[in-house]
Specification:
- It is a single chain.
- By secondary structure, this protein is α+β, with helices and mostly antiparallel strands.
- The chain has four domains: 64 residues, no CATH class; 60 residues, no CATH class; 98 residues, Tyrosine recombinase, N-terminal domain (DNA polymerase, domain 1), CATH 1.10.150.130; 130 residues, Intergrase catalytic core (hpI Integrase, Chain A, Orthogonal Bundle).
- The protein has a four-stranded mixed beta sheet with strand order 1-4-3-2. The chain has a three-stranded antiparallel beta sheet with strand order 5-6-7, covered by helices on one side. Strands 8-9-10 form a three-stranded antiparallel beta sheet.
- Helix 4 packs antiparallel against helix 5, helix 4 crosses helix 7 and helix 10 packs parallel to helix 15.
- The N and C termini lie far apart (86 Å).
Length: 416
């Protein structure tokens, strides 16, 4: 690697250290100059170690000041950013408004603002993993409190493993393989969810212009196949009655619990967990009798969020829950937490049938049951697909389940 003499570190400078050469001292660091990585050192040596340490601190501060600096501009009543960039072959200081009075938002918008001005390469090269994690959490600050806590808890695991000051541009495939191995060693069955959230952090950063490209991430661990479904509709009825008798159930409190409401929603709409996690009451239309699962201001994705019709029994339950609401969210607890609560209740139930399925039941069991029952009733696959937010092909490939008594109905209908 080439060595340069310099007293002017750039914003990419790192690894400052004092090196002793015989009885004198020099400051060295790694830097990025003219498109290549170089080793820089001060051209003049210092006799005393104290003088070299003082120079090292000055150079570190100089490198910090060379990066983007956010400051308050009183005359504009907003935060601004100043940074250095190449203009006409010369390095000049650029100043621009961040158009916000919120200091947290201002700091998060710096890389995107610099990219908009045409200095994307310089801005994106230095974006750290900690910055995009902070942006990810900031964008989800309005979710239910239990969801926000879960996001922060998982984010801390990511930051402990990778460290927050690691540049996004330095991530390698080995980093992710090591992370997966660490998760499997520490977390067991939750590896898939952690890795999915990690991917989501990088993809959001790319979408918001904080980074140009998502690092090359290997395929994560495969989700274990869970084909269990609720073949008997009586099982759901028993679950709802069990939820009513729990400590915070309607039999004890006089109000519908989140678990009861979730079971009604899952049984009559066949949705994914994410459908209910961020569902707002404003998306429940009692006049049109429908539920719009697409969050406000969000674009439709490949996993479609449908506008589902509201069945009569579900409408009655939702109207009661609306009258008893305590927040803008339909569910105040995350569906994932409610499923854990349900499995614990089933495990200690007095009903042997419910105890037998306690380790098998999961959120998609309701989705599989809803789709299968609808097909058995003779409804067309394209119509069911519209209700649950899937394609007819995916419904047959993933969700529709077969039982011998269904086949018996078919063969008995054939008369010779």
């Amino acid at each position: 690697m080439k060595t340069l003499n310099s007293n002017s570190p750039t914003e990419f400078a790192k690894g400052f250290r004092v090196v002793q050469i015989k009885n004198r001292h020099v400051v060295r660091w790694l830097d990025h100059v003219d498109g290549e990585d170089v080793v820089c050192e001060t051209p003049h040596m210092k006799n005393a170690r104290e003088e070299a340490d003082l120079l090292k601190r000055k150079l570190e501060q100089k490198a910090a000041n060379a990066g983007p600096q956010v400051y308050w501009e009183p005359s504009k009543n907003s935060y601004h950013v100043k940074f250095y960039g190449e203009v006409g072959g010369k390095r000049k200081q650029i100043r621009t408004s961040l158009s916000t009075k919120d200091p947290d938002v201002a700091a998060l918008n710096v890389p995107r603002k610099i990219a908009e001005l045409g200095f994307a390469g310089e801005a994106r090269t230095q974006v750290t993993f900690g910055a995009i994690v902070k942006d990810y959490l900031h964008q989800r600050r309005d979710r239910p409190q239990t969801t926000v806590v879960t996001y922060h808890w998982l984010a801390q695991h990511f930051l402990q493993f990778f460290t927050g000051n690691k540049p996004v541009s330095s991530f390698t495939s080995d980093d992710f393989h090591n992370f997966i191995a660490d998760c499997e060693r520490r977390c067991g069955g939750s590896v898939q969810n952690r890795y999915a959230m990690l991917k989501s952090i990088f993809k959001q950063a790319q979408k918001r212009g904080l980074i140009k490209d998502v690092p090359d991430m290997p395929d994560g661990p495969k989700q274990k196949e869970r084909s269990y479904w609720l073949a008997s509709r009586e099982q759901i009825t028993k679950m709802i009655k069990l939820a009513e008798t729990l400590e915070n159930g309607s039999k004890n409190t006089g109000k519908l619990s989140d678990l009861e409401l979730y079971l009604w929603l899952a049984s009559y709409t066949g949705g994914r967990l994410s459908f209910y996690r961020d569902l707002l009451w404003e998306r429940v239309d009692f006049d049109l009798r429908q539920i719009n699962f697409l969050p406000v201001g969000k674009a439709q994705t490949t996993k479609k969020r449908p506008v589902a019709p509201m069945a009569d029994p579900l409408a009655e339950v939702l109207q009661r829950a609306y009258a008893e609401r305590t927040s803008e969210f339909v569910l105040n607890q995350t569906p994932a937490w409610l499923m854990k609560k349900l499995r614990r209740a089933l495990k200690t139930s007095a009903d042997p049938e419910l105890r037998a399925i306690s380790s098998k039941v999961h959120s998609h069991a309701f989705r599989r049951a809803f789709i299968t029952w609808a097909l058995v009733e003779g409804h067309p696959a394209w119509l069911i697909a519209q209700i649950v937010g899937n394609t007819p092909q995916q419904i047959f490939a993933t969700y529709a389940q077969y039982q011998s008594d269904q086949g018996l109905t078919v063969v008995n209908s054939i008369k010779l």
